[in-house]
Design goal:
The complex is a heterodimer of chains A (about 750) and B (about 290). With about 750 residues, chain A is an alpha+beta fold. Chain A has 21 helices and 28 strands. In chain A, the strands form 7 sheets. Chain A has a 7-stranded mixed beta sheet with strand order 3-5-1-12-9-10-11, with helices on both faces. In chain A, helix 10 crosses helix 11 and helix 10 runs parallel beside helix 20. In chain A, about 55% of the residues are buried. Chain B is about 35% helix and about 25% strand. Chain B contains 12 helices and 14 strands. In chain B, strand 8 and strand 9 form a beta hairpin. In chain B, helix 11 packs antiparallel against helix 12. Chain B is globular, with a radius of gyration of 20 Å. In chain B, about 45% of the residues are buried. Chains A and B meet through helix 3 and helix 21 of A and helix 12 of B.
């Protein structure tokens, strides 16, 4: 099904924030720290301010007394408040890329020229570029006693005692590398002052929350701030959060009383936008000879970067809460350690916490299988929760909700994936591949996702006199196709052509409230609200036309008017609205859907690979995903979401890494070194969307589809590679998996084989 | 990511370009010559280079964009675009390794603008065309306002991103020997993504005598040193023989022993060395196969 959003995007006529220019507009450049950790002794702005074309130079000293810091939006915790970030560094910088000053000039060129003249006197301090260094160093902030800022312990059953008592145990260390979302369009803002109001173009994701935050920071009434979302080239969790620039640019526009635009460039993006994913897991799992798991213990170490940003400890908490996945663990013992370092602060990135935890858990399942010489699918089947065990909770909390797996048939999903990938005949394909000099392998990974975070979302539907329907929503659209999704829901319920539903979002003058688009919540929460509003609008139309429709007749909303079965006359929309007015039944309906719990989609990633025994190169022969979303509103869009997620997952599994040296300098700060997958690296992806397990907590039974594509790739690939080269259980615990690592394991394997069995 | 202010000079004849380059350099101004811009423009935008003047050669197609055959050679103008080399029947017939190499360079957009001369003058040791130029010992014609000289590739590439060009010189023409009779060429590379600079790359040319023995073999490696490394001298044991792939591999293991490539975040030194053995074996075996096939 085609998307309403696509014609403008594909024709290149969509308006992004960098496409906007207004009269008297000036451009801003953010001057950022070159040091990972340093005292700022002095900033001399004199020479810079006097350059021709420069409009303003501001440092922390020019900001209003007491402004900031930027608070947490999610997963707040009192001990974290000390580590929040101010819009501009005052006397200390804590990561490379931290904003120190903003220069406003007549053009971006002049602003960048001026930036190179700003004199900042630094006294460098020792940089903490790793968790280990940070644990052994003085705290980054006054008021903190250690860089270990957050700890959470969770135990179920006997915890680690159960692991210790198990007949077999595996101890493993996993590392997930720092990497993050790379939206095609970097961040950008245009702030335009008009009388006492300020219009800000460029916000997205959580438009209403950010507007409230800006109003607090600027100390102006909420209604004086007008946020407008324009086309957005991808978000993936990192785009649309409130960053220092989200205060600085509107502040400058207000102070200078002239429109100010800032467009983040790619080099800034690498240093300034949230990083994600960097975790180390020290795991021990206990199991029996049949592969039944008996307990899991994990110390989760999270390198959270130099400040706590808007996500608080969302990512670490989600890691811990979702780590158990689809299995029936009698005992769990997990400890979360969040540590500050001198690196870019972190936040969520598509599948936050689950990308990391799923890699650990699903690689572990294959390691158990390899230890016992069992089929990994068998080990999984023996441990999966059965459909009858759901709803099921491990007693863990995330985002304020207890994680209660609501509905699903996990064994059926695994079986379907196994059939899809023809796992019965893999040995035959392995010997065929060997003839062409390749090592064939097949790997699986089970994913359990969460979606539909509350608290609630409203939908307002207004019937127009031409029979079209305006649908107002508090969701945002970062490329997902929010408009198409809502129009589809409304169209199905009302029986109106989808093209006649106009979705209005992202403009705070036109929509009153909303919580935005993140955490795979759009369809579940916003879609459910639209569903309820559609039903209510339909009920009211029927009521208004009760004398025409009568008992049992059906109405159809044609473009020309409402047709009633058994009657020839069509009632015009003008007449419908007139009757509604007379009867005082407004055909302007707002309904709210409140999410009382999250809902949990699930599925299986599977891939078949060929590994070159000469170079360690991996070729993905087939990639399949079975994914259950309860109920799909638009099957194509669900598939596309999964595919996009898989592409990013491939990046995280084998290519992307934000590498820092020991002085805290980012080594992979351009697309020359930070490798994202291109068309040639992403295979055809076979997606099977299932609707086995509707969500019990919303009227359509929908579950979110946004993130499940990303989270299962790393373990599926790792398991397939391990299978191909018959790797030992301890192999492939570090991401990204590079050809050189694979070749090393191949060579190690050859060394351990009997003589005379030489390769090639 | 906006470049510093620079003066842009767009000459319409090679003579004007050489004149400007000479005069400006004499005045002590820093000058960069712009061809396809596939490396220079990003470097300017990142302010890693801040020249006073940019001399844009893109109006000089009539002087510098050509592919013309000569006896035993092909002369190629420095401004010839990658896609022109990629699609030229003259090239695929006479220097087939260039056609193969072009398919490994970047993506369509890059090949549409990027030039042969630009790639050689940039002298990235992992790039394909410097490797091919070294393998075939292409001759580079360097022109300044007052002189023209022609030097072999071996004297052109000095070190990582460094050539023996004078600041007043422009690389105008490359002369490449055509494929001798009973010969095969091959380029084999390994990159983490399609179109990336190679982690390691090997180019080979093998010639057989009438009896099917190797009479001449050449091999150059990229990505394992500061310049393309000419390994041809070490191939003497192959001459006069009919080696099997395992013989070639054994020799490659021997001659790559002393390589000491620098490691980086994408590939460590040992892995690059490993690839050098694999890729050079593949290139020689493939080159031989092509002779047999023809």
């Amino acid at each position: 099904m085609r998307r309403q959003e696509d014609p403008t995007l594909l024709r290149g006529t969509a308006t992004f924030v960098a496409d906007l220019t207004v009269p008297r507009m000036v451009e801003a450049v953010v001057v950022r720290s070159m040091y990972a950790h340093a005292r700022i002794d002095a900033i001399d702005t004199m020479a810079t301010s006097s350059l021709s074309g420069v409009v303003a130079v501001i440092t922390a000293a020019d900001l209003p007394e007491g402004v900031g810091p930027i608070p947490m939006r999610l997963s707040s915790s009192p001990e974290l408040v000390q580590a929040l970030q101010h819009p501009l560094a005052r006397d200390r910088v804590r990561y490379v890329g931290e904003p120190i000053a903003v220069i406003v000039a007549q053009s971006r060129y002049l602003a960048e020229d001026a930036a190179s003249t700003l004199r900042v006197d630094y006294s460098p301090l020792p940089a903490m570029a790793s968790v280990d260094t940070a644990m052994a160093s003085a705290p980054l902030f006054e008021g903190l006693t250690a860089n270990h800022v957050y700890h959470r312990h969770h135990q179920k059953g006997l915890g680690s005692e159960a692991v210790a008592a198990a007949p077999r145990r595996l101890k493993m260390h996993f590392s997930i590398q720092r990497h993050t979302g790379m939206p095609l369009e970097t961040r950008g803002l245009l702030a335009v002052p008009e009388a006492e109001r300020l219009t800000v173009y460029g916000p997205t994701k959580v438009v209403f929350f950010n507007r409230r935050l800006l109003s607090d920071l600027l100390k102006v009434p909420l209604e004086h701030i007008h946020y407008v979302e324009v086309a957005v080239g991808g978000g993936f969790g990192i785009r649309g959060e409130f960053y220092p620039e989200d205060y600085l640019i509107p502040f400058l526009a207000q102070r200078l009383q002239t429109p100010v635009r800032w467009i983040e460039d790619r080099m800034e993006h690498f240093q300034a936008a949230n990083h994600s994913r960097e975790q180390h897991h020290e795991v021990e799992v206990g199991f029996d000879d049949m592969g039944h798991v008996m307990g899991l213990a994990d110390h989760i170490w999270v390198d959270t970067g130099a400040y706590i940003r808007t996500h608080g400890v969302t990512v670490p908490e989600l890691t811990q809460a979702m780590l158990p996945g689809p299995y029936d663990w009698a005992a769990l013992d997990t400890e979360l350690h969040v540590v500050l370092t001198n690196k870019t602060p972190t936040g969520t990135y598509r599948g936050p916490g689950r990308f990391e935890g799923t890699f650990v858990r699903e690689r572990l399942m294959d390691s158990i299988a390899a230890t016992l010489h069992l089929d990994p699918l068998v080990v999984r089947q023996r441990n999966l929760l059965q459909a009858t065990q759901l709803p099921y909770s491990n007693g863990l909390k995330a985002l304020g909700h207890e994680v209660e797996l609501d509905s699903g048939n996990y064994p059926a999903a695994l079986l379907r994936a196994s059939n899809l990938m023809e796992s019965e005949t893999i040995s035959q394909r392995k010997s065929e591949a060997l003839h062409t000099g390749h090592l064939r392998g097949l790997g699986f990974a089970f994913v359990v996702e969460k979606s539909g975070l509350g608290p609630y979302e409203d939908a307002r539907l207004v019937l127009q006199d031409d029979g079209t329907v305006a649908c107002f929503t508090g969701l945002a659209d970062l490329g997902q196709g929010t408009g198409t999704m809502l129009a589809t829901v409304v169209s199905k319920e009302l029986g109106v052509d989808r093209d006649r539903i106009h979705v209005i979002y992202g403009d705070t003058d036109r929509v009153a409230e909303g919580f935005g688009t993140f955490a795979s919540r759009g369809t579940v929460v916003g879609g459910s609200a639209a569903y309820l509003a559609s039903a209510e609008l339909k009920r009211r139309i029927v009521a208004v036309l009760s004398d025409v429709i009568g008992n049992g007749a059906k109405m159809v909303m044609h473009p020309s008017g409402i047709k009633v079965s058994g009657r020839t006359r069509t009632v015009s929309y003008r007449e419908v609205l007139h009757r509604a007015e007379t009867q005082k039944v407004p055909l302007d309906v707002t309904q709210r859907f409140t999410a009382t719990a999250m809902t949990y989609p699930y599925g299986v990633h599977a891939c078949e690979v060929d590994v070159s025994p000469e170079t360690g190169a991996v070729h993905i022969v087939r990639y399949g995903v079975v994914y259950d979303v309860g109920k799909a509103i638009n099957l194509d869009m669900v598939r596309d979401q999964i595919m996009g997620g898989v592409a990013q997952g491939i990046g995280g599994a084998v290519l992307e890494q934000l590498v820092y040296d020991e002085t805290g300098q980012l080594q992979t700060g351009t697309f020359m070194d930070y490798l994202i997958p291109g068309m040639c690296e992403v295979p055809d992806i076979e997606v099977v969307v299932t609707e086995d397990a509707p969500a019990p907590s919303n009227p359509m039974g929908v579950k979110g589809a946004g993130e499940g594509g990303a989270v299962g790739v790393a373990p599926a690939l790792a398991n397939a590679i391990a299978d191909a080269i018959s790797a030992p259980p301890e192999a492939f615990t570090t991401l990204p998996i590079r050809p050189q690592d694979i070749l090393r394991w191949i060579r190690l394997g050859l060394e351990h084989r009997p003589r005379g069995d030489e390769a090639e | 990511m906006k470049p510093c202010a620079f003066q842009l000079y767009t000459p319409s004849t090679l003579e004007d370009a050489l004149e400007a380059l000479w005069e400006l350099t004499e005045e002590g101004r820093s000058v960069k010559v712009l061809a396809g811009g596939q490396s220079l423009i990003p470097v300017l935008n990142m302010r890693l280079a801040t020249p006073d003047v940019l001399i844009d050669l893109n109006e000089l197609d009539s002087d510098l964009n050509f592919i013309s055959p000569d006896t035993n050679h092909i002369k190629i103008g420095a401004l010839t675009r990658h896609y022109q080399l990629e699609t030229s029947p003259l090239i695929s017939k006479n220097v087939p390794i260039i056609t193969e190499a072009e398919r490994l360079i970047g993506h369509v957009a890059i090949r549409s603008r990027g030039t042969l001369g630009g790639s050689l003058a940039h002298a990235d040791p992992s790039a394909e065309l410097p490797l091919v130029a070294s393998l075939l010992n292409a001759r580079m014609t360097l022109q300044s306002k007052h002189a023209t000289r022609t030097i072999p590739a071996a004297e052109f590439f000095l070190a990582y991103l460094m050539t023996s060009m004078e600041p007043t010189e422009i690389l105008t023409e490359i002369t490449i020997p055509t494929l001798p009779g009973r010969s095969g060429q091959s380029i084999q590379e390994f990159a983490l993504r399609h179109g990336d600079f190679a982690i390691a790359v090997a180019g080979a040319q093998v010639t057989m005598d009438e009896d099917g023995c190797i009479s001449d073999a050449r091999l150059t490696l990229g990505g394992v040193g500061g310049t393309p490394l000419d390994m041809s001298a070490s191939l003497a044991p192959l001459v006069g023989s009919r080696p099997l792939p395992e013989d070639i591999e054994r020799l490659m293991k021997e001659i790559c022993q002393d390589l000491e490539p620098d490691g980086d975040i994408h590939a460590d030194s040992a892995y690059r060395k490993d690839l050098a053995i694999t890729l050079s074996t593949r290139a020689l075996v493939d080159g031989l196969q092509k002779v047999k096939d023809s």
